[in-house]
Amino acid sequence: MRSPLCTLVDAMLLATSQRSETAVFIDDDQRERLLRGLFEAYYAEIHPQQVVFDTDRAWTTKLEAIATLFPQARVICCVRNPAWVMDSLERLIRRNALHPSGIFNFDPAGNVYSRVEGLGSAGGLVGFPFRGLREAAYGPHGDRLLLVRYETMVANPLGTLAAIYGFIGEELFGHDPGHIEPSYDMVEFDMRMGTPGLHHVGPRVHAPPRPTILPPDLFTRYERDAFWEDPAQLPPTVRLL
User: Fold this and answer.
1) What's the distance, CA 48 to chain centroid?
2) How far separated are the first and last CA of the chain, in Å rounded?
3) Can you tell me the distance from the alpha carbon of 52 to that of 73, in angstroms, rounded to the nearest whole number?
4) Fold for domain 70-240?
5) Residue 109 backbone phi and psi in degrees, to 5
6) How far apart are CA 87 and CA 219, in angstroms?
7) Distances (CA, A) of 44 to 9, 21, 39, 48, 52
8) Predicted confidence (pLDDT) at residue 200 exceeds the cutoff of 70
9) Could you give the 3-state DSSP secondary structure of residue 63?
């Protein structure tokens, strides 16, 4: 799900771009103040000393702007082998076989190949953030990134959380990975998307073993994309858990 704030940032950048005939009257200092004011207004109820977590898969594409506006900002990227991400989404689609999904513009046609290829396309649900992750990792601000592997989180949730808090310079507070309150279970949003369960949060952290339901050629194609698993491909500035 997109963050309202990230969407507003996109709208502000577009409104002050050369697409508008009034852009000639706006300089970069004003753009910076406008964007900073947008963040301040959106989080007006947050105490200045509090840490804000804003989740959006597009933040990795805006690291240059983030570094300018908030030099202390960090980006935490939860990563999992793309083949298993595709597998999870395909399972969800099949589980809701009577509901055409908004992920695919509610088109009931298609098959596992067209669905996975659509998800992995440049603007797809998986392809867009994956390319944004690579852009950020190989860019000049890779030191702002912390990549958190799915496998690390499920194997040692408390240790992983402690490392995340250390990365952002905050003290760890109590967590119970065996009892998670389902406060983020966005039932109505998922129903409107025709994809019930898309944002479902389980009651505990665990990784049930299962075989993939993807055809072998599809699984193999995307399995190779987990560049963070190869030390030779991961830039030394990027931290990995």
Assistant:
1) 25
2) 24
3) 10
4) Rossmann fold (3.40.50)
5) -80, 175
6) 8
7) 16, 31, 8, 9, 11
8) yes
9) helix
State the pLDDT confidence band at 227, using cuts at 50, 70 and 90. very high
| Whole-angstrom Cα Rg for the chain | 20
DSSP 8-state secondary structure symbol assigned to residue 231: T
List of residues 6+ apart from 177 with CB closer than 8 A: 157, 158, 204, 205
Cβ-defined contacts of 150-158 (< 8 Å, 24+): 150/78, 150/79, 150/80, 150/81, 150/84, 150/207, 151/80, 151/207, 152/241, 153/78, 153/205, 153/241, 154/205, 154/206, 154/207, 155/207, 157/205
Task: Give span(s): CATH 3.40.50, the chain.
Answer: 70-240
Distance CA(134)–CA(234), nearest Å, equals: 10
Q: Which residue has the higher pLDDT, 86 or 208?
A: 86
pTM (2 decimals)? 0.86
Residues of the chain with pLDDT > 90, as a percent, come to 44
